[in-house]
Specification:
It contains eleven helices and 25 strands. It is an alpha+beta fold. A five-stranded mixed β-barrel has the order 1-2-3-5-4. Strands 8-7-6-9-10 form a five-stranded antiparallel beta sheet. The protein starts with 10 loop residues before the first helix and ends with a helix. The model is unreliable at about 1-10, about 20-30 and about 470-489 (pLDDT under 50).
């Protein structure tokens, strides 16, 4: 007895399967529209046709002449990738073209209806725009639709070959309007849609700097799609203009901060170059060490000192009291200017509060370090009069080292009249009577004489107060200003 075979599906089920396949085919085809740009792979080149796999069940077909270059050779072959425009969609085929060809009114209308770009050449600049030759016809492109950044000289565009979309064909081809900008915006919309499918805040992207503006730099994320890096996000260092951090064409990495739309519905992608580089304070203790002398750049000046950049994004403060051993500094501008390259000594690194204390004078060396040897008690020394006060003459013995010839000593000296005539800048030879390196004081006497004056302490106090920029109540004011500045930094 022969077994009867049971059919796996009924005729009705087979019909349903076929219908489903047909629906799937129609759905896939409907995803493509005339005027859409696609990328595919050349399957075969036969006769006058090129067959292209565009990712759906129906192959794309374009004219073979579209792949013939100026030398008459085929620019692509089987297996090569190719970009083309969809000129027509049906259930049997997808018509493709590198650009709309032909000539005459019919070709212009076909290009307009299919929204496929045409090759054109700018032939002249005219009132309100440009004259463009497309498909053997003269067309008009309004200046606002050229979409190419140029200088004020419109003649720069004359002779350039560009692609255009045909916007209007009227009066049997006597009134043809085209737009290059519309093509750019359409390509941007397509690229942006693809990009936004995967892009999200927090992602790190790579691209090239495409434009600079006073408020920042634009970075190309995809063809015709840009993100904006604000000036404050270009670098951890302080920059006043974008070209201080980047130049056109630079390849950079950036972090996506936000993706939003403005009031007109345009997508805005905000980027940060510095955040893609990481926080410079994270490993500052590996790159900087207290007690070392390092190079830096003066970035800002304040009444209480100068801020010096040691590394990109890492600044320290040189307090006004740490600016010089040799000068009495009333304000930082007396010693430094913004942009100066300096060497500074790191006094302290506070990672918790992100503060670094620096000293310019310590990097130069303390002139009092070997003063006891250079100006030993009893030695004869030469100097110049720095100032005359009621308490005596202050004498500059070396840069940063000042001694005092007390008024009482001058009065009791046999050479008193001679010293009474000395003025600022005059040279004088004296004897070192006392040395106090801790208090940074040197007492002087006429050469060959020894004397003491009870008014010395008062004279030194007056000298220090007169030369200090942060004495008395001023110290409290400066301390408050320093604390406020560091809190706001």
């Amino acid at each position: 007895m022969t077994e009867e075979k049971i059919p796996t599906s009924t005729p009705e089920e087979g019909a349903e399967d076929f219908a489903a396949m047909l629906a799937a085919h129609d759905t896939a085809s409907s995803r493509l529209q005339s005027g859409q740009k696609v990328t595919g792979t050349v399957i075969a080149v036969t006769g006058d046709s090129v067959f292209v796999d565009v990712g759906i069940k129906v192959d794309g077909i374009m004219d073979r002449k579209d792949i013939i270059d100026a030398e008459g050779k085929e620019s692509v072959g089987p297996g090569d990738s190719i970009e083309a425009w969809v000129t027509g969609v049906s259930s049997q085929e997808i018509r493709l073209s590198r650009s709309m060809g032909g000539s005459g009114v019919a070709a212009l209308e076909d290009a307009r209806d299919a929204a496929v770009p045409v090759d054109g050449r700018v032939t002249a600049a005219c009132k309100g725009g440009y004259t463009v030759e497309v498909l053997g016809k003269s067309a008009f492109c309004p200046g606002s639709q050229i979409g190419v950044p140029t200088s004020e000289d419109a003649a720069e565009l004359v002779g350039r070959a560009l692609q255009f979309l045909v916007i209007r064909v009227e009066n049997h081809g006597r009134n043809v309007v085209v737009s290059h900008r519309a093509l750019i915006e359409r390509e941007r919309a397509e690229q942006l849609e693809t990009l936004l499918e995967s892009l999200k805040p927090g992602d790190t992207v790579e691209g090239k700097i495409s434009r600079l503006a006073p408020f920042g730099a634009f970075m190309e994320l995809a063809p015709s799609v840009e993100g904006m890096i604000h000036l404050s996000e270009l670098s951890w260092s302080r920059v006043n203009a974008p070209d201080e951090a980047v130049t056109l064409g630079d390849a950079v990495r950036a972090k996506v901060l936000s993706i939003s739309k403005d009031a007109k519905g345009r997508v805005r992608i905000s980027l940060s170059r510095k955040q893609a580089e990481g926080d410079p304070w994270q490993n500052v203790n590996e790159r900087l060490e207290a007690g070392t002398v390092v190079p830096g750049k003066v970035m800002r000046l304040a009444p209480f000192g100068a801020f010096v950049e040691l590394l990109p994004g890492i600044e320290g403060l040189v307090h006004i009291s740490e600016l010089s051993w040799t000068k009495r500094v009333a304000k930082p501008e007396d010693v430094l200017t913004v942009g100066d390259a300096v060497s500074v000594k790191i006094k302290e690194i506070n990672l918790e509060n992100r503060r670094i204390s620096l000293s310019l004078r310590d990097a130069e060396g303390d002139p009092w370090q070997d003063a006891a040897q250079r100006f030993a008690v009893g030695a004869t020394v030469s100097g110049t009069v720095e100032s005359r006060t009621p308490y005596g003459l202050f004498i500059t013995l070396a840069p940063g080292i000042t001694g005092l010839l007390p008024a009482g000593v001058i009065k009791n000296s046999k050479q008193g009249k001679q010293y009474s005539k000395l003025d600022k800048g005059d040279a004088v030879t004296l004897t070192v009577q006392n040395m106090d390196t801790t208090a940074r004081r040197i007492s002087l006497a006429p050469e060959g004489e020894q004397a003491a004056s009870p008014a010395e302490d008062k004279a030194w106090k007056q000298h220090a107060t007169a030369g200090s920029s942060t004495g008395g109540a001023g110290m409290n004011i400066m301390a408050q200003a320093l604390q406020k500045a560091l809190q706001n930094k």
